[in-house]
Amino acid sequence: MLTFETVNELMLKVTCSGRDVLYTKAGSFIAGENAGAKNYRFDKVLFGPQNSLGQAVLGSLVRRVTGENIPLMKVELNGDSVTYYANYGQHVVIYHLSAGETLSVESENILAFTQDCDYSVRFIGVGVFSQKGLATSTLTARGPNAYVAVLSDGNPIVLSNVRSRDTICVDPDAVICWVGSGPCDPQVTADVSWKTFIGQASGESYQFEWHGSQAVTVIVQPSERRGGIRVGMD
What we know:
By secondary structure, this protein is mainly beta. Helix content is 6%, strand content 45%. It has one domain (2-220): Mitochondrial biogenesis AIM24 (Double-stranded beta-helix), CATH 3.60.160.10.
């Protein structure tokens, strides 16, 4: 069994009791300790974490086509141990998924997840305005030990309308992930007018929105991705 904890907000601590398997961003291991000889090993994931070779190959192809591909490594833990993972000093956020919950995340923000998560890519068709693509990586809980660790450029904020049912609006280039009972993809609102084309736009011409009918938790980083479509005239 695995448990996830953060250390100084910048590292992921994974405690293993017995034997288990962990999937992490390739090269993210920084330290580990256990009694006796080292009882964990690392293998590169060639296609994907799916159990079926056919599903793994198909999943790898879809991720490459959609730009959601991420180099993963498989950590085989063969006894009690504690291992640590990080990525260039980025902040680490941990989410323990409940049964039926799905976390949708940009592939670049994935640090680690347990084998109780089903990993796939889903087309959402809303990314034409920003650096976010037309697809998103999804991790769905299929067991009680479904942990996910995601990365943030800076200390993130968490917005949730699960109780309030408020409308949540975020910049697509700042969102890290969103969590809900099943896929709960956002709507895109665009405010493009003649001012956009003469360089007088506000700089916030599009947003992701979740309305009160969608119970969702959204994690946002204090940094925006660069890229996407920039409409305007000098």
